[in-house]
Amino acid sequence: MEKKEIIEGILYMLQGATSKFDGRRYKYLQILDFLKANNVIVNNLREIIKEIEDKGLIEERHFGKEHDDRVDYSIEQKGIDLIKNKRNELRNKWKLQY
User: Is residue 97 part of a domain?
Assistant: First the structure.
């Protein structure tokens, strides 16, 4: 699967099942589980996440006593805008229950 498709899948997951952002945040392992449930194996997921964060499509948030303690991700408006016209296609391609 091409990286562009993986990025769209991650954005679709982060946005949620409806076209309205549900505000939910996901941890790295949840994103990895989502991809595995969709039969996608990615060896460089951290690099892909960093790339889409650098593009302003997602936000990484650190919390806990130490900043490395916990990290989660959520979609930004720019990411929502990128996939808004592809929702039906993405719904047919990616399953959100994992």
Answer: no
C-alpha–C-alpha distance, residues 56 and 58, integer Å: 6
Read off the pLDDT of residues 9-67 as tens digits, 9 standing for 90 and up. 999 999 886 656 555 688 899 999 999 999 999 999 999 999 999 999 999 888 766 65
* pTM for the structure as a whole: 0.86
Q: Which CATH number characterizes residue 67's domain?
A: 1.10.10.10
Q: Residue 90, exposed/middle/buried by CB under 10 A (0-12, 13-18, 19+)?
A: middle
- Give residue 56's domain range: 3-92
Within a domain: 28: yes
Name which of 95, 92, 55, 96 is nearest 76 in CA terms.
55
Q: What is the maximal distance between C-alpha atoms in the chain?
A: 41
Total domains in the chain come to 1
Beta carbons within 10 angstroms of residue 14's beta carbon: 26
Residue the block writes with tokens 């964060």? 53
Q: Is residue 12 domain-resident? A: yes
